[in-house]
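Hi all, posting the design record for the shared folder.

TITLE: backbone redesign
STEP: 1 of 1
STRUCTURE INPUT:
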């Protein structure tokens, strides 16, 4: 490393919420080969939301399902408007040629905000189809012979039955994902935003659905320096080359943390990550 290099922490948590730290050689910083171009393109703050979300999305699209997804295949996810979901849409389209279907919730959004959300996810998030899960009838997946509402919608839009589902929500939402998977399909769970469980006995028995989990911190701890460097620099390369965009953010000075928390709860059409500017004023 030399003075002026752009680096990111090479271990989970290293450097989080602190202005200075000492790190052993083992915790090596990862140098960004095209760091200056990244910051010129996205400004000082957007890269803060790129690596955790983009790294999680990238690995989930590759590790549990190596060579499973072919161009034109469908991938279905929930929390499609989350930062990770935003990266999944773009990476799956760019790297795998897949067609991504996202479940999102209306929540307290107005009709106009819902339209804005769909528009954003289709244009920037590169989603093929956005479905409001509140509009789908309950689906407990117990009857393997009944076509799920989501599966019917996919067919109507000329989309294949998905081989891969990415679940950040759990509960009723995860149930919709499982029900539309192809026989032998895989659902990767990486979050449980609803804090609700889901059942899957019939899909496991009759359709051989596989349920696996993913935790990016574990990958970052176990992967070699070369693997981590490659992942980080691949993400930078895709952003610099205009293939993907980091998730939307909103910047607050650290001193305004109370305002930031309030803003985060207030609900907007497009979800944005809060990024704190920790520079001293
Ligand atoms: N396993 C890993 O390695 C890993 C890595 C990164 C993130 N994660 C997890 O992935 C999830 C998404 O992270 P993120 O940073 O991308 O989140 P984010 O940008 O803050 O977005 C949160 C998402 O969750 C949805 N949501 C919140 N509460 C919900 C509920 N009760 N029911 C249904 N949906 C709900 C939000 O929808 P609305 O906009 O409608 O509120 C939004 O789509 C989190 O659970 C996070 O912990 C896991």
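Okay, here is what came back for every position:
SEQUENCE:
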């Amino acid at each position: 490393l030399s003075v002026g290099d752009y680096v990111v922490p090479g271990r989970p948590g290293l450097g989080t919420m602190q202005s200075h730290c000492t790190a052993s050689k083992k915790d090596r910083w990862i140098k960004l080969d095209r760091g200056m171009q990244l910051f010129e393109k996205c400004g000082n703050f957007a890269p803060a939301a790129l690596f955790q979300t983009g790294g999680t999305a990238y690995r989930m699209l590759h590790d549990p399902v190596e060579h499973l997804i072919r161009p034109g295949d469908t991938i279905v996810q929930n929390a499609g408007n989350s930062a990770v979901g935003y990266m999944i849409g773009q990476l799956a389209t760019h790297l795998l040629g897949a067609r991504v279907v996202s479940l999102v919730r209306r929540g307290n959004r107005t009709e106009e905000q819902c339209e804005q959300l769909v528009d954003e996810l289709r244009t920037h998030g590169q989603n093929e189809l956005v479905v409001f899960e509140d509009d789908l009838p309950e689906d407990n997946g117990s009857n393997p012979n009944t076509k799920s509402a989501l599966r019917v919608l996919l067919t109507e839009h000329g989309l294949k039955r998905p081989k891969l589902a990415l679940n950040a929500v759990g509960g009723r939402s995860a149930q919709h994902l499982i029900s539309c998977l192809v026989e032998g399909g895989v659902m990767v769970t990486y979050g449980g935003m609803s804090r609700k469980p889901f059942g899957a006995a019939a899909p496991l028995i009759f359709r051989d659905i596989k349920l696996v989990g993913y935790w990016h911190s574990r990958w970052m701890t176990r992967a070699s320096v070369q693997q981590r460097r490659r992942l980080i620099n691949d993400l930078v390369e895709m952003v610099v080359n205009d293939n993907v965009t980091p998730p939307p953010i909103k910047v607050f000075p650290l001193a305004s943390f109370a305002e930031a928390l309030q803003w985060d709860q207030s609900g907007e059409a497009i979800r944005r990550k809060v990024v704190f500017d920790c520079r001293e004023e």
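COMMENT: Residues 52-53, 56, 79, 81-84, 105, 107, 168-169, 173, 190-191, 193-194, 214-216, 271, 273 surround NAP (CB under 6 Å).
Let me know if anyone wants the other runs.
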